[in-house]
Amino acid sequence: MSRLTLSLIFVMLLATVGIGWGIDKIFEQFGSESNKDLVSSYSNLGKQLALALDTQNNNQVFLDTWNTRHQNNIALVNIDNFPLPAEIITDFKRGEPLVLESTNTLSLHYYLPQQKKVLSFTPDELVINTQASNLNLALTASFYMSLLLIILIWLYPLIKRLRILRKSAIAFGKGNLAKRIHTNKSSYLYDIETEFNRMAKKIESLVNDNKLISSAVSHDLRTPLARLRFGIDILSDTQDPQALQEHQQHLSADIDEMQNLVEVMLDYSKLEQSMVAINKTKVDLILLINECIQLCQAQGLSIYLKTDSHEVWVSGDKQYLRMLLNNLLTNAIEHSDGQVIVELIAHKNLCDINIHDNGSGVDSEHREKILKPFVRGNIKENNKGYGMGLAIADRISQWHQGVIHIEQSAILHGALFKVTLPRLP
């Protein structure tokens, strides 16, 4: 994280300073060209002025008049009072203008051969304004600092969220599977944080389900394995053909039970790992519910549909939606005292399938647990199964962006299994 932060800051600094340096160089280039043109123009003006003054007798009157009317003052100095190096004085006396640069000014000088004097000419445009230069430097520094401050203000939330993401990933990797990131839609990493939370929830669910399946399978396998071992010991001591055949049938039944358990576990593993293909189509939910109810009524069970809607359409795989309804209806029938009501309530964008029964209901502390694999509710003597029906129903509802809630039925005072699914317009 620190490497990313430093690299971001370094790149921003490099880009800012590099761009600024490039702009300054371009400005200096064009500025120096304009200064050269300005010096050249004033140099020609100075030559003409020097020629004019060299032929006049009363130069002081001209100088006073010029300095009064113009801002660019001129002055005449005797050549003896204007010392120059020997290598320069020769060219200067031949008529070459001399440009001298000081801290604040550029001055032009011309030799007047007839009067043995030097004309000094300092245009105002060539005077360097120290105050203006310092102000430009201060403004340039302020610009860069402001730009860097804006970049750092923009980077701070990103760096903060990245650090939170890093800490959460480390905590999750160390075994804290319940670790989640508090998301904020204004965050730059909102999509990544949401996907991290979804991934963490999925992994936690898989790990917990695997632990539950392992313990449940080991528990459910222990009984048929013990019976098999006991049956094998009895077979070795049995001589009666009829008793031998009965023991063999018991052994076969135990093997079938173990095979069924393994197949159920494998089927749920496929569901858990999303290894099945979901072919979603437009499904008439009222028609599908009626088909499932008719199968139950054919077995002599008291069950019917209650709804005020004429048609409710959903997008889903009809085969798996039928499995979802059959599992919930089978569970309701097994734990009821003979009466089940299916209630369909259509909302604007959602629809609720409420399955009521008149059984003993589900305790509030067990309502989330019984949606897990190999967890069974109130077990009756004639109930068979491994506690997978509700787990499969919950998984199918998730595939269809739905959710299952377990409540207390206000109609039959037993359990209420509410399935909420998105509704097509």
Chain-wise SSE layout:
Layout: H1 2-54, H2 59-69, E1 74-78, H3 86-93, E2 98-101, E3 106-112, E4 117-121, H4 130-173, H5 190-237, H6 241-272, E5 281-284, H7 285-297, E6 302-307, E7 313-316, H8 318-334, E8 339-346, E9 350-357, H9 389-399, E10 403-408, E11 415-422
Parallel strand pairs: 6-8
Antiparallel strand pairs: 1-4, 2-3, 3-4, 5-7, 8-9, 9-11, 10-11
Helix pairs in contact: 1-4, 5-6, 7-8, 8-9
Concise synopsis of the structure shown:
By secondary structure, this protein is of the alpha+beta class.
Q: How helix-rich are the residues, as a percent range? A: 55-70%
Please identify the structural class as seen in this structure.
Answer: alpha+beta
Count of folded domains: 3
CATH level-two architecture of the largest domain: 2-Layer Sandwich
Mean pLDDT: 79
Largest sheet: 5 strands, mixed
| Total strands | 11
Name the CATH superfamily classification of the largest domain: Histidine kinase-like ATPase, C-terminal domain
Radius of gyration: 48 Å
Based on Cα principal axes, name the global outline.
rod-shaped
Structure description:
- With 425 residues, the protein is an alpha+beta fold.
- The protein folds into three domains: 2-128, no CATH class; 190-272, Helix Hairpins; 281-422, Heat Shock Protein 90 (2-Layer Sandwich), CATH 3.30.565.10.
- It is built from nine helices and eleven strands.
- The mean pLDDT is 79.
Notable traits:
Heat Shock Protein 90, 56% helix, 4-stranded antiparallel beta sheet, 5-stranded mixed beta sheet, alpha+beta, 9 helices
